[in-house]
Amino acid sequence: MIDELDLSLVDALRVDPRASWSRLAGPLGVDPATLSRRWARLSGDGDAWVTCYPSAERMGIGLTALVLVECRADSVPSVAATLAEDPQTPTVEVISGEADLMLTVAALEPEQITGYVLDRVGRVPGVLRTRTAFVERTLREGSRWREGALDPAQREAIGGAGATVQAAPAEQALRATLARRALADRTLMQALGADGRMSFAGLAERTGLPATTVRRRLGELRESGRLVLRCDASPRLGGHVVGTMLWLDVPARELDAATGWLGELPATRMCGLVAGSTANVAAYVMTHQVGDARRIEAAMAQRFPAARVVGRQVTLRTVKLVGRLLDPDGRANGYVPIDPWQTGQA
Q1: Which of 26, 49, 101, 147 has the maximal Cβ count within 10 Å?
Q2: Domain chopping of the chain, boundaries
Q3: HSE on the CB side for 95, CA within 13 Å?
Q4: DSSP 169
Q5: Of the candidates 8, 10, 17, which has an alpha carbon nearest to the alpha carbon of residue 229?
Q6: pLDDT digits over 134-162, tens only?
Q7: Is the pTM of this model over 0.85?
């Protein structure tokens, strides 16, 4: 049975995904043992999980693309399941609108995105056509989204480890250094992807590194923002929230103001600048009713009359979310490590 404590616990872990139960006990008003039992039940049932992924922008290497895929009507489930097994696709969603699937694709270089879309996605039986938009810059990403179960005092009491250093643009030599460092941390990130709350002893066993080294590297990666930890939950916890991707064409003179406004909306889970599309902004909003996205559009039109919505898709089913394979009810039932270093299928 899901209750308010479950919702509060998940939102607390969105603030700090690796917070100890003793640190969360005070703000949530329960003892650590109760929180530990609750989390064991939620994670065991696939209703909540903590995962991890590298931040391409903070690492100085890598990039992300959003790929819309049109399929034959009878092949949508099979194409989605096939592509969900690939380590280059952190997220696979079945969507409404002019496409059937939306993929989030991760890679180190643009050529890898091109190769993956043409040589992998394009050859899956049932795929008819694809359209690709590169994410030029992420202004808000999913780890910052909250359900709203905590009040401001609780969020402040929990605090959280966050990025304090913004990576500078990387020149070629610096990119090579960052690439070597990222490759060295690859195993640690993938272990945390499987279980973002894994103990330091468990991480040491998985990576073959001393626990002290794991603790130090994890702290450095989190502080710099090169590693992102994120808590997600099934629809059973927060209700069946509707996800809508809005593709926007915003004039250059209003771009900073419009994306700043979108990025601060509580409903916005992701907002980024995109290239290679008729849109130059993509924003993914989470609402409780389909019509709520229209109200966001109307509010934006009042503030930025020259901005236009050039496309919108409602998520019908999430097949894979940041590496987690989900069943039709949105519960986690598997994990495919996110690996932008891969060049082929799983």
Answers
A1: 49
A2: 1-238+318-340
A3: 26
A4: P
A5: 17
A6: 999 999 988 777 777 788 888 888 886 55
A7: yes
Strand partners, 129: 70
The rounded Cα 138 to chain-centroid distance in angstroms is 11
DSSP 17: T
Specify whether the CB–CB gap between 259 and 250 falls below 8 A.
Answer: yes
pLDDT in tens, 64-121: 999 999 999 999 999 999 999 999 999 999 999 989 999 999 998 899 999 999 999 9
> Is it the case that residue 231 has pLDDT exceeding 90?
yes
Strand partners, 282: 247, 272
Distance (Å, whole) CA 213 – CA 216: 5
Query: Tokens 């916005």 correspond to what residue?
Result: 268
Q: How far apart are CA 66 and CA 268, in angstroms?
A: 17
- Range 1-238+318-340: architecture per CATH: 2-Layer Sandwich (3.30)
Q: Are 53 and 232 in contact, with CB atoms under 8 Å apart?
A: no
The answer to whether 300 and 247 are in contact (CB under 8 A) is: no
